[in-house]
Amino acid sequence: MLINISRLLFALLGAVGGAELSSVYRLPIPGSSIIGIILYIIIGAGLGYLIGGTVGIEVAKGLNWMEKTIQKVPLLDILVGIGGLVVGLILATFISLPLWRIPRFGLYIAVLVFIVLSYFGMWLASRKREDIGSVFKLFGHSKTQVRGFISQNKLLDTSVIIDGRITDICRTGFISGELIVPIFILRELQAIADSEDSLKRNRGRRGLDVLHELQGEQIVKVRIMEKDYSKIREVDAKLVQMAKDLNMSIITNDFNLNKVAALQYVKVLNINELANALKPVVLPGEEMRIYIVKEGKELDQGVGYLEDGTMVVVEKGGYHVGEEVRVFVTSALQTAAGRMIFTKFKDEESMV
User: What pTM does this model have?
Assistant: First the structure.
Protein backbone atom coordinates (compact mmCIF):
# COMPACT_ATOMS: atom_id res chain seq x y z
CA MET A 1 0.00 0.00 0.00
CA LEU A 2 2.75 2.43 0.97
CA ILE A 3 4.74 1.58 -2.17
CA ASN A 4 1.72 2.24 -4.42
CA ILE A 5 1.07 5.58 -2.73
CA SER A 6 4.73 6.52 -3.15
CA ARG A 7 4.62 5.62 -6.84
CA LEU A 8 1.46 7.68 -7.37
CA LEU A 9 2.87 10.74 -5.62
CA PHE A 10 6.18 10.60 -7.45
CA ALA A 11 4.41 10.02 -10.77
CA LEU A 12 2.34 13.15 -10.18
CA LEU A 13 5.41 15.14 -9.19
CA GLY A 14 7.23 13.81 -12.24
CA ALA A 15 4.33 14.80 -14.50
CA VAL A 16 4.28 18.31 -13.02
CA GLY A 17 8.03 18.56 -13.36
CA GLY A 18 7.85 17.35 -16.95
CA ALA A 19 5.24 19.97 -17.78
CA GLU A 20 7.45 22.66 -16.27
CA LEU A 21 10.50 21.49 -18.24
CA SER A 22 8.52 21.35 -21.49
CA SER A 23 8.13 25.11 -21.42
CA VAL A 24 11.87 25.56 -20.94
CA TYR A 25 13.27 22.91 -23.22
CA ARG A 26 10.92 22.74 -26.21
CA LEU A 27 11.29 20.13 -28.91
CA PRO A 28 13.06 21.50 -32.02
CA ILE A 29 10.12 20.55 -34.24
CA PRO A 30 7.72 23.22 -35.59
CA GLY A 31 4.15 22.93 -34.29
CA SER A 32 5.01 20.21 -31.78
CA SER A 33 4.49 22.15 -28.55
CA ILE A 34 1.48 20.09 -27.41
CA ILE A 35 3.19 16.86 -28.38
CA GLY A 36 6.28 17.99 -26.50
CA ILE A 37 4.31 18.81 -23.37
CA ILE A 38 2.60 15.41 -23.46
CA LEU A 39 5.92 13.67 -24.09
CA TYR A 40 7.61 15.44 -21.19
CA ILE A 41 4.66 14.64 -18.89
CA ILE A 42 4.77 10.95 -19.85
CA ILE A 43 8.53 10.73 -19.36
CA GLY A 44 8.35 12.62 -16.04
CA ALA A 45 5.48 10.46 -14.80
CA GLY A 46 7.31 7.27 -15.84
CA LEU A 47 10.51 8.28 -14.12
CA GLY A 48 8.53 9.36 -11.05
CA TYR A 49 6.75 5.98 -10.99
CA LEU A 50 10.06 4.09 -11.07
CA ILE A 51 11.69 6.33 -8.49
CA GLY A 52 8.56 6.23 -6.32
CA GLY A 53 8.66 2.42 -6.20
CA THR A 54 12.25 2.42 -5.01
CA VAL A 55 11.58 5.19 -2.51
CA GLY A 56 8.47 3.40 -1.25
CA ILE A 57 10.39 0.19 -0.59
CA GLU A 58 13.11 2.07 1.28
CA VAL A 59 10.54 4.08 3.24
CA ALA A 60 8.74 0.86 4.24
CA LYS A 61 12.03 -0.60 5.46
CA GLY A 62 12.78 2.64 7.27
CA LEU A 63 9.40 2.62 9.01
CA ASN A 64 9.88 -0.97 10.15
CA TRP A 65 13.34 -0.09 11.45
CA MET A 66 11.95 3.03 13.12
CA GLU A 67 9.21 1.05 14.84
CA LYS A 68 11.73 -1.39 16.29
CA THR A 69 14.11 1.41 17.24
CA ILE A 70 11.48 3.53 18.97
CA GLN A 71 10.64 0.61 21.24
CA LYS A 72 14.23 0.66 22.48
CA VAL A 73 14.64 4.42 22.78
CA PRO A 74 13.94 6.03 26.19
CA LEU A 75 10.84 8.21 26.36
CA LEU A 76 12.88 11.28 27.27
CA ASP A 77 15.07 10.84 24.19
CA ILE A 78 11.93 10.76 22.05
CA LEU A 79 10.68 13.98 23.65
CA VAL A 80 14.03 15.66 22.99
CA GLY A 81 13.90 14.53 19.36
CA ILE A 82 10.36 15.88 18.96
CA GLY A 83 11.49 19.19 20.42
CA GLY A 84 14.35 19.35 17.91
CA LEU A 85 11.94 18.53 15.08
CA VAL A 86 9.60 21.36 16.11
CA VAL A 87 12.47 23.86 16.26
CA GLY A 88 13.71 22.69 12.86
CA LEU A 89 10.26 23.12 11.31
CA ILE A 90 9.92 26.63 12.74
CA LEU A 91 13.31 27.65 11.33
CA ALA A 92 12.46 26.06 7.99
CA THR A 93 9.21 28.05 7.83
CA PHE A 94 11.00 31.39 8.20
CA ILE A 95 13.83 30.46 5.83
CA SER A 96 11.57 29.07 3.12
CA LEU A 97 9.27 32.12 2.95
CA PRO A 98 11.46 34.01 0.45
CA LEU A 99 12.29 30.77 -1.39
CA TRP A 100 8.68 30.30 -2.47
CA ARG A 101 9.09 33.32 -4.76
CA ILE A 102 11.80 31.70 -6.87
CA PRO A 103 10.24 30.93 -10.28
CA ARG A 104 9.55 27.29 -11.15
CA PHE A 105 11.82 25.63 -8.57
CA GLY A 106 10.90 27.58 -5.42
CA LEU A 107 8.51 24.86 -4.21
CA TYR A 108 11.12 22.11 -4.54
CA ILE A 109 13.80 24.13 -2.79
CA ALA A 110 11.42 24.98 0.08
CA VAL A 111 10.48 21.31 0.54
CA LEU A 112 14.19 20.39 0.58
CA VAL A 113 14.84 23.06 3.24
CA PHE A 114 12.04 21.63 5.41
CA ILE A 115 13.45 18.11 5.15
CA VAL A 116 17.04 19.12 5.87
CA LEU A 117 16.26 21.42 8.82
CA SER A 118 13.81 18.94 10.37
CA TYR A 119 16.42 16.20 10.30
CA PHE A 120 19.14 18.55 11.51
CA GLY A 121 16.94 19.70 14.43
CA MET A 122 16.35 16.13 15.62
CA TRP A 123 20.01 15.17 15.13
CA LEU A 124 21.32 18.20 17.01
CA ALA A 125 18.84 17.73 19.88
CA SER A 126 19.86 14.08 20.31
CA ARG A 127 23.56 14.98 20.22
CA LYS A 128 23.15 17.77 22.77
CA ARG A 129 20.80 15.86 25.06
CA GLU A 130 22.99 16.18 28.14
CA ASP A 131 23.52 19.92 27.58
CA ILE A 132 19.78 20.44 27.20
CA GLY A 133 19.22 18.46 30.37
CA SER A 134 21.69 20.53 32.34
CA VAL A 135 19.92 23.72 31.25
CA PHE A 136 16.37 22.60 32.01
CA LYS A 137 17.32 20.17 34.81
CA LEU A 138 15.21 17.47 33.25
CA PHE A 139 17.79 14.81 32.67
CA GLY A 140 20.29 15.41 35.44
CA HIS A 141 21.63 12.62 37.60
CA SER A 142 20.70 14.14 40.97
CA LYS A 143 18.01 13.00 43.34
CA THR A 144 15.70 15.65 41.95
CA GLN A 145 15.77 14.02 38.52
CA VAL A 146 12.42 14.22 36.78
CA ARG A 147 11.23 10.67 36.41
CA GLY A 148 7.58 11.02 35.50
CA PHE A 149 6.98 7.38 36.38
CA ILE A 150 8.95 4.24 37.15
CA SER A 151 8.63 1.80 34.29
CA GLN A 152 7.15 -1.60 35.09
CA ASN A 153 9.87 -3.18 32.94
CA LYS A 154 12.92 -4.47 34.78
CA LEU A 155 16.57 -4.91 33.85
CA LEU A 156 18.31 -8.21 34.58
CA ASP A 157 21.96 -8.35 35.52
CA THR A 158 24.32 -11.24 34.81
CA SER A 159 24.38 -12.69 38.33
CA VAL A 160 20.62 -12.98 38.66
CA ILE A 161 20.33 -14.72 35.29
CA ILE A 162 23.00 -17.27 36.22
CA ASP A 163 21.36 -17.70 39.65
CA GLY A 164 18.23 -19.05 37.96
CA ARG A 165 15.70 -18.31 40.72
CA ILE A 166 14.22 -15.57 38.56
CA THR A 167 12.47 -18.31 36.58
CA ASP A 168 10.61 -19.59 39.64
CA ILE A 169 9.72 -16.05 40.70
CA CYS A 170 8.25 -15.35 37.26
CA ARG A 171 6.15 -18.51 37.48
CA THR A 172 4.53 -17.19 40.65
CA GLY A 173 3.19 -14.16 38.75
CA PHE A 174 4.73 -11.57 41.06
CA ILE A 175 6.80 -10.03 38.25
CA SER A 176 5.00 -7.37 36.21
CA GLY A 177 6.12 -5.74 32.99
CA GLU A 178 8.86 -7.00 30.69
CA LEU A 179 12.25 -8.39 31.63
CA ILE A 180 14.89 -6.46 29.70
CA VAL A 181 18.27 -8.05 28.99
CA PRO A 182 20.72 -5.41 27.69
CA ILE A 183 22.95 -6.51 24.83
CA PHE A 184 26.08 -5.98 26.95
CA ILE A 185 24.72 -8.39 29.59
CA LEU A 186 24.10 -10.97 26.87
CA ARG A 187 27.65 -10.48 25.59
CA GLU A 188 29.03 -10.97 29.10
CA LEU A 189 27.03 -14.18 29.48
CA GLN A 190 28.37 -15.42 26.16
CA ALA A 191 31.92 -14.55 27.17
CA ILE A 192 31.50 -16.49 30.42
CA ALA A 193 30.02 -19.44 28.52
CA ASP A 194 33.06 -19.44 26.20
CA SER A 195 35.55 -19.25 29.08
CA GLU A 196 38.36 -21.80 29.33
CA ASP A 197 37.56 -22.24 33.03
CA SER A 198 35.06 -25.11 33.27
CA LEU A 199 33.27 -23.60 36.29
CA LYS A 200 32.77 -20.25 34.57
CA ARG A 201 31.78 -22.00 31.35
CA ASN A 202 29.08 -24.00 33.14
CA ARG A 203 27.78 -20.87 34.87
CA GLY A 204 27.58 -19.01 31.57
CA ARG A 205 25.77 -21.85 29.85
CA ARG A 206 23.36 -22.08 32.76
CA GLY A 207 22.58 -18.37 32.35
CA LEU A 208 21.87 -18.81 28.63
CA ASP A 209 19.65 -21.80 29.43
CA VAL A 210 17.72 -19.70 31.96
CA LEU A 211 17.07 -17.00 29.35
CA HIS A 212 15.99 -19.62 26.83
CA GLU A 213 13.63 -21.14 29.39
CA LEU A 214 12.11 -17.76 30.23
CA GLN A 215 11.52 -16.98 26.57
CA GLY A 216 10.09 -20.42 25.93
CA GLU A 217 7.57 -20.37 28.77
CA GLN A 218 6.37 -16.85 27.83
CA ILE A 219 5.10 -16.23 31.36
CA VAL A 220 6.87 -12.88 31.29
CA LYS A 221 8.03 -11.25 28.07
CA VAL A 222 11.82 -11.22 27.78
CA ARG A 223 13.31 -8.66 25.41
CA ILE A 224 16.91 -8.09 24.33
CA MET A 225 17.73 -4.38 24.16
CA GLU A 226 20.41 -3.35 21.68
CA LYS A 227 21.22 -0.05 23.43
CA ASP A 228 24.83 0.07 24.59
CA TYR A 229 27.15 2.58 26.25
CA SER A 230 30.45 2.32 24.42
CA LYS A 231 32.06 5.07 26.50
CA ILE A 232 31.46 3.13 29.75
CA ARG A 233 33.67 0.11 30.32
CA GLU A 234 32.21 -1.66 33.35
CA VAL A 235 29.09 -3.70 32.77
CA ASP A 236 27.56 -2.77 36.14
CA ALA A 237 28.08 0.94 35.40
CA LYS A 238 26.38 0.49 32.02
CA LEU A 239 23.44 -1.26 33.69
CA VAL A 240 22.99 1.50 36.27
CA GLN A 241 23.18 4.18 33.57
CA MET A 242 20.56 2.38 31.48
CA ALA A 243 18.28 2.06 34.51
CA LYS A 244 18.57 5.81 35.07
CA ASP A 245 17.92 6.63 31.43
CA LEU A 246 14.91 4.31 31.12
CA ASN A 247 13.56 4.85 34.66
CA MET A 248 13.64 1.10 35.27
CA SER A 249 14.52 -0.98 38.29
CA ILE A 250 17.27 -3.62 38.35
CA ILE A 251 16.78 -7.22 39.46
CA THR A 252 20.00 -8.59 40.93
CA ASN A 253 21.53 -10.62 43.74
CA ASP A 254 24.85 -8.77 43.57
CA PHE A 255 25.45 -7.00 46.88
CA ASN A 256 27.94 -4.48 45.44
CA LEU A 257 25.69 -3.59 42.49
CA ASN A 258 22.85 -3.13 44.96
CA LYS A 259 24.87 -0.56 46.92
CA VAL A 260 26.19 1.30 43.86
CA ALA A 261 22.72 1.55 42.31
CA ALA A 262 21.19 2.76 45.58
CA LEU A 263 23.78 5.55 45.80
CA GLN A 264 22.60 6.75 42.38
CA TYR A 265 18.92 6.54 43.36
CA VAL A 266 18.17 3.55 41.14
CA LYS A 267 15.58 1.13 42.47
CA VAL A 268 16.96 -2.38 43.00
CA LEU A 269 15.04 -5.62 43.53
CA ASN A 270 17.44 -7.97 45.29
CA ILE A 271 16.45 -11.63 45.09
CA ASN A 272 18.49 -12.48 48.19
CA GLU A 273 16.57 -9.89 50.19
CA LEU A 274 13.32 -11.35 48.84
CA ALA A 275 14.40 -14.84 49.87
CA ASN A 276 15.30 -13.63 53.38
CA ALA A 277 11.97 -11.85 53.71
CA LEU A 278 10.11 -15.06 52.83
CA LYS A 279 11.89 -17.20 55.40
CA PRO A 280 9.68 -18.32 58.27
CA VAL A 281 9.78 -16.15 61.37
CA VAL A 282 10.99 -17.88 64.53
CA LEU A 283 10.53 -16.43 67.99
CA PRO A 284 12.61 -16.98 71.11
CA GLY A 285 11.31 -19.96 73.02
CA GLU A 286 10.06 -21.91 69.99
CA GLU A 287 11.14 -25.52 69.81
CA MET A 288 12.44 -27.27 66.71
CA ARG A 289 14.23 -30.40 65.65
CA ILE A 290 17.49 -29.86 63.82
CA TYR A 291 20.05 -32.19 62.26
CA ILE A 292 23.58 -31.11 63.21
CA VAL A 293 25.85 -31.44 60.19
CA LYS A 294 29.11 -29.93 61.43
CA GLU A 295 30.90 -28.18 64.25
CA GLY A 296 30.67 -24.39 64.59
CA LYS A 297 33.42 -21.81 64.81
CA GLU A 298 33.13 -21.45 68.57
CA LEU A 299 33.94 -24.18 71.06
CA ASP A 300 31.24 -26.85 71.45
CA GLN A 301 28.95 -25.23 68.85
CA GLY A 302 27.08 -27.34 66.33
CA VAL A 303 25.61 -26.13 63.05
CA GLY A 304 22.53 -27.30 61.20
CA TYR A 305 20.28 -25.91 58.47
CA LEU A 306 16.57 -25.50 57.92
CA GLU A 307 14.97 -26.56 54.65
CA ASP A 308 15.22 -22.99 53.29
CA GLY A 309 18.96 -22.87 54.02
CA THR A 310 18.80 -20.83 57.23
CA MET A 311 21.78 -21.56 59.46
CA VAL A 312 20.98 -22.82 62.96
CA VAL A 313 23.72 -22.60 65.60
CA VAL A 314 23.28 -25.03 68.49
CA GLU A 315 25.07 -24.29 71.74
CA LYS A 316 26.98 -27.36 72.99
CA GLY A 317 25.94 -29.13 69.79
CA GLY A 318 29.49 -29.88 68.64
CA TYR A 319 29.34 -33.24 70.40
CA HIS A 320 26.23 -34.29 68.44
CA VAL A 321 27.39 -33.95 64.82
CA GLY A 322 25.40 -36.39 62.67
CA GLU A 323 22.49 -36.46 65.11
CA GLU A 324 19.00 -34.97 65.06
CA VAL A 325 18.28 -33.11 68.29
CA ARG A 326 15.47 -31.08 69.84
CA VAL A 327 16.36 -27.46 70.71
CA PHE A 328 14.65 -24.17 71.47
CA VAL A 329 15.37 -20.77 69.96
CA THR A 330 17.23 -18.19 72.02
CA SER A 331 17.68 -15.45 69.40
CA ALA A 332 17.86 -14.71 65.67
CA LEU A 333 20.28 -12.48 63.80
CA GLN A 334 19.78 -10.97 60.34
CA THR A 335 23.04 -10.43 58.44
CA ALA A 336 23.95 -9.43 54.90
CA ALA A 337 24.62 -13.10 54.16
CA GLY A 338 21.24 -14.22 55.52
CA ARG A 339 19.50 -15.12 58.73
CA MET A 340 21.12 -17.04 61.61
CA ILE A 341 19.19 -18.71 64.41
CA PHE A 342 20.83 -19.41 67.78
CA THR A 343 19.51 -22.27 69.85
CA LYS A 344 20.39 -24.44 72.81
CA PHE A 345 19.22 -27.60 74.42
CA LYS A 346 16.24 -27.26 76.70
CA ASP A 347 17.35 -30.15 78.86
CA GLU A 348 19.57 -33.17 78.68
CA GLU A 349 16.72 -35.37 77.40
CA SER A 350 16.24 -33.16 74.36
CA MET A 351 19.76 -33.93 73.18
CA VAL A 352 18.56 -37.23 71.75
Answer: 0.49
